[in-house]
C-alpha cells in the first residue's frame, strides 16, 4: 500500500534571518516529527527541537508529540520573548504621560 504524503511548511525567524521550508511527510506525522524531518535543526543549531515552543498558524500547540499535522499546515517555531509586551507598553505609557506633564 502506498503511503499518502502531505506538504507542510516549517518556519523560524532568528534575529538575523528567517527560513520557511516545505517538507513532505506521511499523513499522520506529528508536529515534532515533521520538525525533525524538515532539517531546520541543521540550519539553526541553537534550536532545541525537543523542547522549543511551536504553533500552527499562530496558535500554540500544547503537545507537539501527539498532535498530527494536516496538509498545508504552517508549523511555527517560537523564540522566547526578550521583553514582556505588557511591561513595554506600561513603560511607554508612563514615558508619554511624563512628557505630556512637562509640556503643560
TrEMBL record:
InterPro entries given in the database record: Mopterin_synth/thiamin_S_b (IPR016155), RnfH (IPR005346), RnfH_sf (IPR037021)
Gene3D superfamilies: RnfH-like (3.10.20.280)
HAMAP family reported for this sequence: UPF0125_RnfH
PANTHER family: UPF0125 PROTEIN RATB
Family in the record: Belongs to the UPF0125 (RnfH) family.
The protein's name: UPF0125 protein BVK86_18015
Amino acid at each position: 500500500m502506498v503511503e499518502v504524503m502531505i506538504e507542510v511548511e516549517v518556519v523560524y525567524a532568528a534575529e538575523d534571518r528567517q527560513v520557511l521550508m516545505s517538507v513532505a511527510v506521511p499523513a499522520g506525522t506529528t508536529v515534532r516529527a515533521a520538525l525533525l524531518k524538515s532539517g531546520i535543526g541543521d540550519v539553526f543549531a541553537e534550536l532545541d527541537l525537543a523542547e522549543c515552543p511551536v504553533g500552527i498558524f499562530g496558535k500554540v500547540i500544547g503537545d507537539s508529540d501527539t498532535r498530527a499535522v494536516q496538509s498545508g499546515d504552517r508549523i511555527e517555531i517560537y523564540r522566547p520573548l526578550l521583553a514582556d509586551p505588557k511591561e513595554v507598553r506600561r513603560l511607554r505609557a508612563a514615558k508619554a504621560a511624563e512628557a505630556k506633564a512637562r509640556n503643560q
